[in-house]
Design a protein that fits this description.
43% helix; 5-stranded parallel beta sheet; alpha/beta; Rossmann fold; globular; 126 residues
Length: 126
């Protein structure tokens, strides 16, 4: 797998966006495109050309699984690796998300200082 540099991050909560941006850009050194909705992700994803799609699960309008389904229809994103971030971490919920062919499910709240390493660790297993 190629080196992970660019992450398309979809999160509707501004506070979580800010914390994750600092964790991923400043601590992790990633180039980030932050989107506040699935609709915005569909508008920006192809042009940004992410190495990884990092999607919140619970969002108003278009949730994470629906956003993933729509992003998969964009030819250049059809095989881009995906990770979900969610507060819904009951075993059956995590099992369902993993059944969507994603690399990992990251629990919220997350440790900002460990987020980039968690993503790197999951990326190494792809």
């Amino acid at each position: 797998m190629a080196e992970l540099k660019k992450i398309l991050y979809v999160e509707d909560e501004p506070d979580i966006q800010m914390i994750a941006r600092v964790a991923l850009e400043n601590v992790g050194g990633f180039e980030l495109c932050v989107c506040s909705s699935g609709t915005e992700a569909l508008e920006k994803a192809a042009e940004f050309g992410p190495d990884l799609l990092l999607l919140d699960v619970m969002m108003p309008g278009m949730d994470g699984p629906t956003t993933l389904s729509e992003l998969r229809k964009i030819p250049q994103l059809a095989s881009t690796p995906v990770m979900f971030m969610t507060a819904k971490v009951q075993p059956q919920e995590v099992e369902y998300l993993k059944s969507l062919n994603v690399a990992d499910v990251i629990a919220k709240p997350f440790d900002p200082m460990a987020l980039a390493n968690s993503i790197h660790d999951s990326w190494a297993k792809i």
